[in-house]
Amino acid sequence: MESPELLEVILRRASVRNFERNKKISEEILKEILLAGVTAPSAGNIQPRTFIIVKDENVKGRLYELCEDQAFMKDAPVWIVVCVDLHRHLKAAKLTGVEYDYTGVLPYTFGVLDAALSLENMVIAAEASGLGSVIVGSIIEHPEKAKEILKLPKHCLALSILCIGYPKKRPETRPKWGCDVVVSEDGYRDTDAQDVSEYWKSFVSSNLKRGGKELSREAIEKFCRENSYGKTYSNHYKEEFVNATNKKLNDFLRKQQFLKD
Ligand SMILES: Cc1cc2nc3c(=O)[nH]c(=O)nc-3n(C[C@H](O)[C@H](O)[C@H](O)COP(=O)(O)O)c2cc1C
Predict the structure, then answer these.
(1) Does the predicted TM-score (pTM) go above 0.85?
(2) Whose CA is nearest to atom 3 of ligand 1?
(3) Based on the domain organization, do 26 and 136 belong to the same domain?
(4) Quick one: 158 exposed, middle or buried, by C-beta within 10 A (0-12, 13-18, 19+)?
(5) Is 143 inside any structural domain?
(6) Domain total for the chain?
(7) pLDDT tens-digit series, residues 196-251
(8) What separation in Å is there between the alpha carbon of 94 and the centre of ligand 1?
(9) Same-domain pairing of 57 and 117
(10) Domain range for residue 212?
């Protein structure tokens, strides 16, 4: 079988949440995926990222609980926790005779960018190998517990779990804001009501279709009025939840000496 073009792989990708429970991933494919992860670009080539493969059932069970029992995780044969990690860099400097302070907003932001690039490289590598994946970000809501479970050092934060496996059925891609909205030339282009209305209609109808409901244009418009973009997201990310999680993360980042006061 000829392998698909890279762009085709990127454009057909969608998060998978239904894995073939008993279909294992070969060590060879897993190695290639991890290699794609470590090969991603990195600011200053410092590579402040660590990947932890979770195999132990007890560790899996504890992380599963942290991620609010997202049932599909259990069927994914491979879990890779992606961390932003300044520890290795600081240790390498110390081992070569220098103790310096590479912490604060700049290293942290570069670190998150670097880890995200690795994450996406692994997502695409998995997809190109005929696998599917989903990023489970809810682990970041429990930084202290994740640190304890995974025995993370200072300057290390678990960002996401990448769950990989063979999809039972490949989902359709989910609608995204189009290039006409996201891309502009020589300066910022603001979003208007028309952009939101068009995007939300396509998003809602795709979701309804996925749930087996094909509604008329009028019914979709009514649904969109009753479940607007703003209403949906402000319900999903409730202010109390966002504020409490912000506080937890801020405290953790200071305690882990990522950020300074
Ligand atoms: C940082 C991050 C965190 C995410 N966390 C979760 C999660 O906890 N659970 C989940 O089912 N999907 C999670 N996802 C997947 C998104 O829901 C998914 O990417 C989004 O709905 C768009 O769908 P698509 O990936 O199929 O294009 C996460 C994605 C990202 C990038």
Answers:
(1) yes
(2) 137
(3) yes
(4) buried
(5) yes
(6) 2
(7) 999 999 999 999 888 888 888 898 999 999 999 999 999 999 999 999 999 999 99
(8) 37
(9) yes
(10) 179-227
